[in-house]
Here is the input.
Amino acid sequence: MRIDGMGVVGGFGCGISDLAAGMEEGRSPAEFFPLSTVHGELQVPMLLADTAVLSTMADRRTLRRIDHHTRMALLACLLAMEDAGISEPAAESLGIIVATGYGSTCNTFDIQELCPAADMRSFSPIQFSNSVHNAAGAHIAAVLRSRGPNLSINQFDLSIPMAFLTAAHWLAEGRVDRVLVGGVDDFARIMAYHRHCRFSGRQVGDSSPAAAAVGEGSAFFLVSDHAGSQDGVSVAWAESGFSDAPKIPGFDLCVIGADGFSPGEEAYGRCVSGPAACYTHLYGHLPVGMAFDVAAAVLSLRAERVYASAGGGVPMPGGPELISETRPLESGQIHCLKIGAAGGYGRVLLEKR
Amino acid sequence: MKKPLAPVAITGMGCLCAAGLTVEACMDFLFQGKRFPARPSRFFTDPGAGFPVFEVKSGFWSPERFRSSPRCRTVRLALTAAHEALAQAGLERDLLKQKRVGVCIGSNVAGSVSNPELFGPSESWDNGYPTSGRRFAAANPAVGLAREFDLTGPVETVVTACSAGTDAIGLGAAWIRMGLCDAVLVGGADELYEITYNGFISLMNSDEGPCRPFDVNRRGLNLGEGAAVLVLESEELLRERAGICRGRVLGYGAAGDAYHLTAPDPDGQGLRLALQEALASSGIAPDALAFINAHGTGTADNDRIESRVFDAVFPKIPFLSTKGYTGHTLGAAGAVEAVFSLGCLSFGQVPPSVGFADPDPELPAHPVSQTTAVTGSAAMSETLAFGGNNAVLILGKDE
Amino acid sequence: MDSLAKSGNETLDIKESLKTIICRELYMEDIDPAQIGDDDLLFGEKFGLDSIDAVELVFQVKAHFGVAIRDMKEGRKVLQSINTLAAYIEAHRSA
Here is the structure.
């Protein structure tokens, strides 16, 4: 399936040009912010997404009750449509697939921290509605007036390969002509604290992929059946399995999702033998981080160059060799690989035709 | 119009909910026309506040059947249903391990918080705090099934709220058709959960008494809990092991209302599109359906829209709601009711829609109020979810 | 809110509180509380409120004033305007 457009928002900024600039620069844009914890206020690096620009793309009444989680996803969707040059999608032939690792309003990990102490009966109807995991998908469909199939997937860090796989099935079976597929996750306070405990000695400025700051954001792709088309970037293959990752065959580059959280770099080292790159310093640790790996791969294929990896030249213990310098594209194929924290793997192969 | 897709074989089914702990027990219960709503037993509610629920009987969990020992109730529900389904299918653990078997499960609490013991309050934050991956996996029924049965195929949790169980079956069937898997465990699982319970009360969508789907006095839904798992199998595997086909997924359709976060489109546009897609993909004509399993939650809007759409599209087809027996089991509902629908097809009759007594004069079509004989080899089961997600399955008897 | 109950201009204070609640809790960021007239239809064209706003208002009225609106049949009458809401709250609030 062909990637007709993509939209991104995250700690690196908003839009393809901000992501491209970040990849050129190579430094982590993470900034320190206070995080209040039971052990007092800590200064913790974060990669936060700013969705202010959304108010210029949709009217305020429409956005009224939409929370940060959905704003990020909606912004990425609108940017993807813009990138594809499409303003009005056909109502019944556009499918929407939203992948999220934490769920809406970071329900999964933050509300549970807040709940046991708080009175669960004090959830307001608007809060509750926004906490349902398909809230983002529902809002996106309403804004785009899409009446096609609307799916929300929550498979933690393997949500993204499942989303791409499903988009491919929908197109192959002729359910829809196009799919907006992507992921969104909020900043998780508890993971920021977890990172602090684990890596507080390490700096973020060194862009080490092994200790990414906790991030948030969204990346969406407008895909269509590419039969008959001769050019452009496409998803050649998407798969996921609850087994060890297979050996990755010959390619230009493998973008790995190592971010310092389990499993470690050695898990990538076991199946990636060729050149690898890691860009987690740009968008941080978040379960749907693989959506940004795919975005980085699309950028590289479009620009016909592979960008230097974070921490390039500094070997990761047991990890694959990270490329240290930006270089021209050769075969036109880039793999993205994510090894799941709870087991399993996901793989997306992108190619330029 | 879209072309019909290949039917996918169902070789095993397992189900537990307030109606019973096995498929057989559930089917018996439905035809007795009884129900036992009660106050939630596992969390505090205001005494005298009403809002009964339908819980799964305590003691459903049989740890000796399983190698893993999950603490999360939703995972236990899913494992129990899967155990029954795999036993009926006759699929042994050794074979499951060798074949490419996937899992696709609909749930709400899987992506939420369902294990306070494991997750604990902030005081427990320290270096040894369980990482997010471990926390997710511990409460996720799809991962729970993959781990218990050593499955190596794709693992997916669908979180389209109330239609998640229906979507999971429809998506899993595509994995078989596309040649991705030899078998897929599909279905849904959800435990009764405090946040959803109070959330639906705050949305003023809950009935203070036992729910009354399609009744003139309906006041909202009651929540329930449960799980259902179906084994979908490729024709190749079925032939190879001489398995028995017990039913088929004939069609699936899904469409969004693109209307409102909590209110359904008053004209049922999304529902109409979803059932058109389901019918087209099954190649079945609307008047060939034996019956329709409605979503029938007992909320004013949901039941009105379904009644209008049934009247317009399926004027002569009998329909029922089983929510009165089970409560709304949310992410499990689509799967639980798919199992019920297959059971009713093989019985050749549908049970009364318990809770429905006085027809609503504003509704053009009414559900069956007593045990009704049905003829035909295919039935439709539908779910309308929060956020305007509509999902529809066409299920068939094996013939 | 407790201090409001003791003030001399009770109804006026209820109305002001309600307007603030509508702007803040229903995220009506483009409207100033002063722009809401006491007799304006809350669920008409002017504000564009809908069914979630209605249940949210019921929830907020319970939270702020301790006054329950039992169901939407009752709610439809009570939630018409600031005046109908304030009158209901005044009549049902325990002294």
